Amino acid sequence: MTERLERLIDQGTGREPADIVLKGGRFFDLVTGELVQSDIAISGDTIVGTCGDYTGKTEIDISGKIVVPGFIDTHLHIESSLVTPYEFDRCVLPYGVTTVICDPHEIANVLGEEGIRYFLESAEQTIMDIRVQLSSCVPATHLETSGADLPIEKLLPFRDHEKVIGLAEFMNFPGVIHKDPVCMAKLAAFQGAHIDGHAPLLSGNDLNGYLSAGIRTEHECTSAEEALEKIRKGMHILVREGSVSKDLHALMSIITERLSPHLALCTDDRNPLDIAEQGHLDYMIRTAIKNGVEPLAIYRAASISAARAFGLRDRGLVAPGWRADLAILDSLENCKAEMVFSAGRKVTSALFETRKPIAPVGLDSVNARTVNAAHFGVPVADGETPVIGVMPGKIITEHRRYRLPVKGNQTAVDLDNDIIKVAVIERHGKNGNHANGFVQGFGLKKGAIASTVGHDSHNICVVGVSEDDMAMAANRLGEIKGGFVVVEDGKVTGEIPLPLAGLMSLEPYETVRDTLHDLRKAAYALGTTLEEPFLQVAFLPLPVIPHLKISDRGMVDVDQFRLIG
Length: 565
Fold this sequence. Notes:
By secondary structure, the protein is of the alpha/beta class.
């Protein structure tokens, strides 16, 4: 350690050449808001010189470019990118995202401790710095069948791992407010560590009680008013823009220089196709600036404010003694990373080859029973039928009621009102549960779409017009060991296998990206009007207290059904 410190000091003072010097560019000072013309000297993984001239063993000309701190995604589920942590690393790091704080909530709900270990082992090898929040809600609810159970006793062995920050999004906010013993045990064990929040629309004294448990961050705000109340009460707000949940525009007014110390950015869930077409956190930064946000405010939220919120004291500024996580941009407005450094290493394709292979897990996690068209029947009800109302661009849904047509002794779909069937099928091989209901807003005119990505318990979710196509799509998921499937008129027209826990592909992200493009085309051929039909299917089964309940007619009771990410 002493030898390393001496080297940092010698290279910082200029007594020795730095390992790397970036010359000819400017850096964005997130303290003053100035663009400073300067060399940037790097020793190992640390910045050792700015605001001066340096010589280096390696010198890189970045004339005309701007250097900013690497971006920090403060909340996401890597599983929802549909690729492994290694492929996520390779996909996202070139966009300037050098740190991500992930909650392996999805794989934990399927595989439990095995899933968390897989993520921690991967995080030890990735080039980007992947930090882990331990999943707080496994299972997410006792009213849906999960693949695993993680009480506090199973989380404690991971608490002191070098990659673990604290406890992930505490979704059971009623359990906190009403002092549920399971919730209390987890919160007590992580006092003094970071506890991430998840409390959509919570306000007033209930919010005060929730925050009194030591919860400090929140990514579920969908309005400026909600965010401001939580900021006033000491929360750090994580502005979210993912593939389904899109809150950036709604929160744009609070991204100001004054409030930026209390803001950070996150994607929550973003797939490789959207990353390829739009970008990652760089997309949020570009979009915000285009809509009038001051660059200082959004770049602070993307780096230094995020680092401080999660106790990462070594990163977030271009300054001596700080971690050399850097993005070299064409301009602040375009935010296109032309070169990236992660812990002082220039990111190249060869760098990813240095990672030790990690064996996949959960390759036989899809154990659903075989179904046929009869399993999707819904008995005729008196009066109106509950219908889940999809809201484009959101994972919050509406509770609607319609008087639906009848065929024989069964309630039928109503295409004139865009109402089709939805079913959730238990896939962990525990009880074979199956529930049917109706959903409005997909735009399907025929066929079916099915997924083993079904937040949070990750059972099979299938939507469709034809019961035969719904059965074929659900059964096909078992054959490919999980994934997404599109069926039209008795034929599989698109699919992507996700055999790792039924959540992630074993293929390179480029293959996943291209397959998703073809999969979207197959879904659009069914008539869907949704931008992200597959992620919308994936979020349909998601119950948060009050939880999903199954009525005595075997239907989803949407009086108790609310979809939150």
